[in-house]
Design brief:
Length: 227
């Protein structure tokens, strides 16, 4: 309104009863029957809430952290799509708790009955190239059929806990894993094959493996049908 005087908060006092503001020289509150004490309660100065700001340095820290976390998640997803060496262990044939001596004797007996040869693979489920060999035969079913038709397969597991030293003592030293031995139906050693010579890239060479199997199978004149 025209002529209305607006007093600064420093010239005002507060009613102790209703809290209303009044001029410093007022004796009675205009909003309630209360009277002001001799020493008025001053009006508290208005306070401002300090705004919290985040510096660019702090923002940069969180941005970089977010980017790094996204990269880690993306990389983890990428690894998840790849086949881990341990993920194919379900297709491995090695039994760390198997009796290697008994398996070898049973393999020789079966080979004699079916007139096949014994193909011994020495390695373990911890061996990447052993797992890759199993995957190779799974991917090349015709070669797997050739192997199973002409050979009795025996898998000898080698681990620190069970190195199967006694069972392997009858054969030449194994330079690397997997290693292949071929026995005839009487248990006589015919071949000792370093499988690194059969490798190609991250798997095995089809032609080399097929050539090896054909070269070690029972001669056609005495070959029988595998059971």
């Amino acid at each position: 309104m025209a002529g209305e005087i607006h007093l600064h908060w420093s010239h005002m006092k507060r009613c102790p009863a209703c809290g209303a503001q009044a001029p410093m020289d007022a004796e009675h509150c205009a909003h309630c029957p209360a009277s002001f004490p001799s020493e008025p309660t001053p009006v508290a100065a208005p306070t401002r809430t300090k705004r919290r700001t985040i510096s660019w340095h702090a923002w940069r820290h969180w941005i970089y952290a977010g980017i790094g976390f996204a990269v880690v998640l993306a990389f983890a997803g990428f690894l998840g799509k790849r086949t881990s060496p341990l993920a194919v262990a379900s297709s491995a044939r090695f039994d760390p708790m198997a009796d290697a001596d008994r398996d070898l004797q049973e393999g020789i007996t079966r080979a004699k009955v079916t007139r096949r040869r014994v193909l011994i693979e020495v390695g373990g489920n911890w061996c990447l190239w052993c797992l890759r060999m199993e995957d190779f035969f799974n991917a090349n079913s015709d070669l797997a059929d050739l192997r199973d038709r002409e050979f009795v397969s025996v898998y000898v597991s080698v681990t620190p806990e069970r190195p199967n030293t006694l069972a392997l003592s009858r054969f030449p030293a194994v330079p690397s894993y997997p290693h292949l031995f071929v026995l005839d139906e009487n248990g006589k050693l015919l071949a000792s094959q370093d499988t690194s010579e059969l490798e190609s890239g991250t798997s095995y060479d089809r032609y080399r493996v097929e050539t090896f199997l054909h070269s070690q199978q029972t001669p056609p004149a005495t070959s029988g049908i595998g059971l």
